[in-house]
Amino acid sequence: MASIYDLKPKFQALLRPFCGRLAGAGVTANQVTLIACGLSLAHGAAHLMNPGAKWVLALLPLILFLRMALNAIDGMLAREFGQASKLGAILNELTDVISDAALYLPFVFIPGLPASLVVVAVTLGIIAEMTGVVAVQIGASRRYDGPFGKSDRAFFFGALALLLVFFEAGWWSTVLMAFACALGAATIVNRARSALKEVSHADT
C-alpha cells in the first residue's frame, strides 16, 4: 500500500552531498540518530510545559521535517559510509518510537482533542513499528508498508498541528484522530500480511 515512505529515495538523493560532508567531518550515524531523538524530546518537553501553545504547534512541522532529514542522513551514513553497527540498528528502532511518543503524546493535553484517541493512535504507531521489526524474526525483510508508517504519521500530526494553530479542536479533530487510528490498525495488518506473504514466497 502506498506511503509517503516511498518518496524517501528522492529525499535521500537531495541530502547525499550534505551527508558526504558530514562523514568527512567525522560525524557518525549514531550521533545523528541521537540528535534527532533529542530534538524530538526537546519539542515534546516544550509542548508538555505549554500545552496547545500556538507557537509550539506551529513549530512541529519544522521539527518533523528536521527529524525526517536526520533520519535519512543517519541511514545513509550507516549504509554508504561503512558506519552500520548492531548498536546503530538498536538505536534506530528505539529512538523512532521514543520520538513518536515524545512528539505526539502531548496532544492529549490540547483542549477539545480526544485524549483517548491520541493515545490509541500513538500506541498503534508503536505496534506498527514493532510489527515491521518482528517481520525480520520470521525471515522477512524489515517491513515499512503503509498506509500509516512513520512518515505518514509525521505528515498527519504536522498537518493537525497547523490546523490547530488556526482552529479550535472540535468534531473535525475527533474525526481525524479516529481516521488516524483506523489507518494505524490497517498498517499493522498490512505489515503482518506482507511479511507472511514474503516468507511464504521464499519457501516456495
Please name the CATH topology: Four Helix Bundle (Hemerythrin (Met), subunit A)
Helix and strand composition category:
mainly alpha
* CATH homologous superfamily grouping: CDP-alcohol phosphotransferase transmembrane (TM) domain
- The low-pLDDT segments are none
- Overall pLDDT score: 93
Overall tally of domains? 1
Separate helix tally: 7
- Oligomeric form: single chain
What is the first-to-last residue Cα distance?
A: 24 Å
3D shape: globular
Q: How many extended strands?
A: 0
- Biggest pleated-sheet summary: none
Topology order in helix (H) and strand (E) letters: HHHHHHH
Please compute the radius of gyration using only Cα atoms: 18 Å
Tell me the fraction of residues in β-strands, as a range. under 5%
Looking at the overall shape, the CATH architecture is Up-down Bundle
Helix content: over 70%
Q: What is the top-level CATH class?
A: Mainly Alpha
